[in-house]
Design brief:
The complex is a heterodimer. Chain A is built from twelve helices and 15 strands. By secondary structure, chain A is α/β, with parallel strands linked by helices. In chain A, α8 runs parallel beside α9. The longest helix of chain A is centred in the first third of the chain and has 20 residues, at 42-61. Chain B has one domain (2-276). Chain B is built from eleven helices and two strands, in the order ααααββααααααα. The longest helix of chain B has 30 residues, at 2-31. Chain B is globular. The chains are: A alpha/beta, B mainly alpha. At the A-B interface, β8, α7, α8 and α9 of A face α1, α9 and α10 of B.
Chain lengths: 400, 288
């Protein structure tokens, strides 16, 4: 609420200044963003906000968004929904009816984005989802929901194709999944991708949230003699699992761990065991897209983020800035902030952003890019697929 | 062979569990304080070992007693300043108090170290013992052995020294102990500080095995709780038995019913045990 007060004060100050300068009668583009700034999801909420802020500063310092013959200042209204989904829904409703926002950015994650999308649909406000990848979010036939991430299956398919092409002798697959919404849905996609290619899934087990020890699961996994091993979970799970797989001498040709290995935090924590681990993610600072947005390229975005926040951006931080640039490009192309015109531009898609080339499919989920496949080689993250942006060749083998 | 490997896994895990729980049991058994801070103290011990390793190259196993010593001082101060004024009150009061201090502690660590997971990487790696085809990670073996050595030292201290007998006496009858000339408040503070010592040392021993982060403190606390109830309060051999029992049960539970049910099995057994033998495996009334 404090932020809101601050924003109101700054708006008032701007209003006073513009009265003093009669020529600058400026319109604003209002965007509403419910964020989990406190509670369980607060680390993610803070990251999303950093992405929004970087974009916002960049746009407003350049005088705002050019829409037709007007320059629109951008005003972002944040509210903290305390990591409680029903509260995010209430706040979205308030942002639309009290604050009269022109567009909405989604709360964090698939579940909350789905809940808020119903409100956006009711009022006809375009909603850009920064962090939803489960197909179930986009299956309601809504016209106002646009998701930046591609479907979970786009993480499993490229790796499976890569393995089939390069390693035809890989036949047996073992999957160990965290028993949690996103990691489990991802594991199911890997199972589908493997079966589709005639690979045999010789082991599929789930481990509970908060597991401190994977030795029993990995002992059984090893006994199944897999060629390709997939483990899903979050960074903490994957540090323990990688270490124990090394100790128990789990062998195979490919080890895929999702999500975590693309970040230096994971690589530092497992040391040499990181070698040759494959993973996939929607974004990584190693990418290099040229873009038509305010940043100009991925590398420039990464440099500006580092300058402002002192660290490299991860995919959540990049997602925050990415929904910003997509909103900007859509308003610029529409030449107005009128919701219907902006929605039409979002449907047309074809936004060349620093994040990826983004267009949305019929359900609203992005379908225009393939999340890159990464591999850790000599302690560095390398892109091994797609070929156009690859920085290194794919390697096989699991280190101990 | 698979069964032998699973048993080895369980024992190796159980040893770590015993290290995690022993300080918690001491404080609960002697002071009748459920120390919610315990998990955070383990994490702080882990951070001390991490930084000692990163900046001075000190092996975390050798560093364990020093991490314990730092936590001893912190524990002593916390007990004297915050907990002593409410000693002897209902257990709920001290529970809420340590819960509050724990919130402060965790957030201070978040602010100081951020939430990134870190881990000590011992170079060259300690490797794995091979007994036939059964594999035993050397770092787990060292952590277990050193942890048990510290537990043994604590047991000797409680049984064989004047300080130890004073702690046990205060636990058995606070008023009678005071009449015998024991400084009850000092004894409480020393017992709490000893619990903190064990937590700090355990944190250092585990710093190469589990990732270190302020958000991990809850899972250590949860395990300590189960182990204490399983092994029986107020008994050091009980904690060791409880730790090993939980490790082995989880390992075989995962083998028999799949890893997703390992926790369900161990909590199910805990419930059965509480019904049949509410004092735990080796529980006793006083602390010895």
């Amino acid at each position: 609420m404090k932020l809101k007060t601050l924003l109101t004060v700054s708006t008032l100050a701007t209003a006073l200044v513009s009265q003093a300068l009669p020529a600058a009668a400026q319109e604003t583009l209002k965007i509403g963003a419910p964020l989990p700034l406190t509670g369980a999801l607060s680390p993610e909420g803070i990251k999303l906000r950093q992405g929004y802020e970087l974009w916002l500063d960049k746009v407003n310092s350049a005088g705002g968004i050019k829409a037709g013959d007007k320059q629109l200042k951008v005003e972002l209204l944040f509210y903290d929904y305390q990591s409680v989904t029903p509260k995010a829904v209430q706040l979205a409703e308030k942002l639309i009816s009290d604050d009269k926002v022109d567009l909405l950015f989604s709360p964090f994650g698939s579940g909350a984005a789905k809940a808020v999308s119903a409100v956006a649909e009711k009022y006809g406000v375009p909603l850009l989802a920064s962090s939803a990848s489960s197909a179930e979010v986009f299956d309601q036939g809504y016209k106002n929901l646009f998701g930046l991430y591609t479907d979970n299956s786009t993480l499993s398919e490229p790796i499976a194709s890569l393995i089939q092409e390069r390693l035809p002798n890989v036949k047996r697959v073992a999957i160990l999944a965290r028993n949690d919404l996103y990691p489990l849905s991802l594991a199911n996609e890997f199972e589908k991708s493997a079966k589709k290619r005639g690979l045999e899934v010789v082991f599929f087990e789930k481990y509970p949230i908060g597991t401190l020890d994977h030795s029993s699961a990995l002992t059984q996994l090893r006994a199944a003699r897999p060629d390709w091993i997939v483990i899903t979970g979050y960074i903490n799970d994957l540090i323990i699992a990688r270490k124990q797989a090394g100790e128990l001498r789990v062998r195979g040709q490919v080890l895929t761990l999702i999500n975590g290995p693309a970040y230096s935090e994971w690589i530092n924590a497992v040391g040499p065991l990181a070698e040759n681990v494959t993973t996939a993610s929607w974004f990584h600072p190693v990418l290099n897209y040229k873009s038509e947005d305010v940043f100009g390229s991925t590398q420039n975005f990464v440099a500006e983020f580092k300058k402002k926040f002192g660290t490299e951006p991860d995919f959540t931080q990049a997602s925050g800035a990415a929904v910003g640039v997509i909103a900007q490009l859509a308003v610029e192309r529409a030449g107005t902030k009128n919701r219907d015109a902006v929605r039409d531009q979002l449907v047309k898609g074809n936004f060349k952003t620093f994040f990826a080339p983004v267009s949305f499919g019929p359900t609203g989920i992005a379908n225009s890019y393939i999340p890159p496949v990464f591999q850790i080689q000599q302690g560095k993250v390398q892109v091994v697929l797609p070929a156009e942006i690859a920085t290194s060749e794919f390697r096989t083998g699991i280190g101990h | 062979m698979l069964l032998l490997q699973v048993l080895t896994n369980g024992l190796a895990l159980g040893g770590l569990y015993a290290c995690i729980a022993v300080g918690f049991s001491l404080v609960w058994g002697v002071l009748n304080v459920i120390n919610i801070l315990h998990g955070s103290m383990i994490v702080l011990g882990g951070y001390l070992a991490f930084f000692a390793h990163q900046y001075f190259g000190i092996n975390p196993f050798l560093f364990a007693p020093f991490a314990g010593a730092v936590l001893f001082v912190i524990g002593f101060a916390i007990q004297r300043l915050a907990i002593n004024p409410v000693m002897g009150r209902p257990v709920l009061i001290t529970l809420v108090l340590t819960f509050g201090i724990n919130l402060f502690f965790d957030n201070a660590m978040l602010a100081a170290f951020n939430a990134d997971y870190r881990k000590v990487i011992i170079d060259p790696p300690l490797g794995v013992f091979e007994i036939g085809s059964v594999l035993l990670p050397v770092d787990r073996l060292y952590a277990t052995l050193l942890g048990l050595a510290l537990v043994g030292a604590l047991w000797l201290l409680l049984r064989g020294t004047q300080l130890g007998r004073a702690i046990v006496a205060v636990r058995m009858d606070r008023d009678a102990a005071a009449l015998m000339g024991i400084d009850v408040r000092l004894t409480y503070a020393v017992a709490f500080a000893l619990g903190a010592f064990m937590a700090g040392a355990a944190g250092a021993l585990l710093s190469g095995i589990f990732p270190i982060s302020p958000v991990s403190s809850g899972s250590y606390l949860g395990k300590a709780f189960v182990i204490c109830v399983l092994g029986g309060l107020g008994s050091i051999p009980g904690v060791v038995a409880g730790g090993f029992a939980l490790g082995v049960i989880e390992s075989f539970g995962a083998l028999a019913f799949g890893p997703e049910h390992a926790l369900t099995i161990s909590f199910g057994l805990l419930l059965v045990l509480l019904i049949l033998r509410p004092q735990g495996l080796l529980g006793v009334k006083g602390f010895n």
